[in-house]
Amino acid sequence: MITFHKSQLTWPKKKSLPYIFCKHASLAHDWSMARNIFANLWLLGQYDYFCSHQVAELVCKMAEGNNTDLSSLQTEKLLQFQDLTGIDDMSRCRAILEQHNWDIEVAVQDTLNEAEGLPSAFNQAPANRNADNLPVVNTGPSYQRVITVMRQPQGLQPQGLVGWTFYIFLLPFRFVYSTLLDLIRFTFRLFRPDPRRALTDPVGDVMRFIKNFEEAYGSFHPTFYRGTYSQALTDAKKELKFMLVYLHGDDHQDTDDFCRRTLCDPEVVQFVNQRSLFWACSVSTSEGYRVSQALQENTYPFLALIVLRDARMTVVARIEGMVEKRFLMDKLNLVITDNEASLMLARADRQNRDLNQSIRQEQDVAYQESLRADQEKVRRKKEEHERQEKEQEEERNKIIEEELHREVIGYMVC
């Protein structure tokens, strides 16, 4: 038998039969088995006569005989998990499967969810209920663009000597007034918690906001996502789209102008509908309030652009304050262009996983068809053998009957 040193071993092409033999043998921590199997198969050239499943089963039995701590079923699951997830580190694959009690379906789903930033499919300890089960979003990456437009004060600057004298005279009263007002609000919140913290009907909050918005500004506006913030995030991940979040401050002085002049502008409506999934809600509702707490806005109107990046939903831009339509579209287009590459990579990775799964399904179908064909051949061969044996038995019985008949006739003649 030809042998090679571990450093000299050249692994065959992935998915080929020698690769599967060597891979299974390496799982048994026996490189001699791997290199010897590969060398002999390569020289004999007989590996095309076997299917991968039969080879895997055979090598698993060999590995078991080599005192490995993995069973044949676990070894097969380990290889399937690696093929489905594309993780090269075998020890990591095994650790993940052990964590999920060797349930390959849950392990694969959980791994893919983790790669895409989705919630885990594995049963774990319940999360903190105070967080309202909001999806985890990266709200402060280093590459985030923060655009804040401050409102220019009008008519507040004192004019002339009389104006400045009056302004300075009232300054202590303004300070005392604002301080007392803040203390009263703080004391009030201590004894009466904000009712918006109690999450009751998040879908109802969104639907009521849409109804109120259309009553105030008309039905021509960006297409609102009719669901919760969590559902919108999930759909944005699934569809690999940008998600634009708008938080509506009912009492803010710039809200009305922003909605009429910017948000409902035909060019803005077309841009938002074509480039993103649009979700909005009022911060006076429970759903809008908890999203505002999660995104940590500073002023209104508030817009956040979220996209899947580095396997997590990430806030890549924040636009705060009153902005005109052209300014808004230019900034959104710039951020979308900067982050389009991450979506392209995510789409390519998803297509690759889908292709691998499709190939594996086709291989499984081909294997099943081949197995059925082999079983049919065995059945026909068995039937043919039984038929031949039956004919031979009948022929022997016929010969015996003829000899007996001749003996009887000879006996009677005598």
Overview of this structure, please?
Helices cover 61% and strands 8% of the residues. The protein has a five-stranded mixed β-sheet with strand order 1-5-4-2-3, with helices on both faces. It starts with 16 loop residues before the first helix and ends with a helix. The chain is built from 13 helices and five strands. By secondary structure, the chain is of the alpha/beta class. The longest helix has 89 residues.
Secondary structure elements and pairings:
Blueprint (H helix, E strand, L loop, with lengths): L16 H11 L3 H14 L7 H14 L6 H14 L4 H10 L4 H13 L28 E4 L11 H32 L10 H16 L11 H11 L2 E7 L6 H9 L2 H10 E7 L3 H10 L6 E8 L2 E9 L4 H89 L1
Parallel strand pairs: 1-5, 2-3
Antiparallel strand pairs: 2-4, 4-5
Helix pairs in contact: 1-2, 1-3, 3-4, 4-5, 4-6, 11-13
